Amino acid sequence: MKRFFMIRDEHMPEHEPFHGEFHYIDLASHGTAGHKWNFGCVVDPHSQPHPEWIALPSLLDAATKLKDSPVPQEYLADFGLTGEETTLEAVTVLGAIHPMMGF
């Protein structure tokens, strides 16, 4: 199952070791709210995220809204997300921008 994270620029992985296993959106490329932040998706279940990455709640968690998690949802504002969304709802919006984020 895909796992989703908020990642500061300084904690972004090198592209080559993760080729095909990691996808991301540079949030600053869509506005100013996410300056120096990225929304990442790890596809390979064996890949370990960096300890500084902030995990979104599981896709299967239909109860937890982003605002009730450790995710800094204010950086997703340029995508119209308010923090009232679940991870599934947020990924649906971001998947329209980057298809590898979706299902």
Description:
It is a single chain. The chain is built from 1 helix and 4 strands, in the order E-E-E-E-H. The chain starts with a strand and ends in an 8-residue tail after the last helix. The mean pLDDT is 89. It has 103 residues and is mainly beta. It is globular and about 30 Å long. The protein is 9% helix and 18% strand. Strands 2-3-1-4 form a 4-stranded antiparallel beta sheet, covered by helices on one side. It has one helix at residues 87-95; strands at 3-8, 22-26, 37-42, 54-55.
Write the layout of secondary structure elements.
Layout: E1 3-8, E2 22-26, E3 37-42, E4 54-55, H1 87-95
Antiparallel strand pairs: 1-3, 1-4, 2-3
What structural keywords apply?
single chain, 103 residues, mainly beta, four-stranded antiparallel β-sheet, 4 strands, 9% helix, 18% strand, globular
Q: Mean pLDDT, nearest integer?
A: 89
Described by its quaternary structure, the protein is single chain
The helix content, as a percent range, equals under 10%
Order of helices and strands: EEEEH
Helix count equals 1
Largest sheet, spatial ordering of strands: 2-3-1-4
**Strand segment tally:** 4
User: What overall geometry do the principal axes of the alpha carbons give?
Assistant: globular
Counting helices, strands and paired strands, the structural category is mainly beta
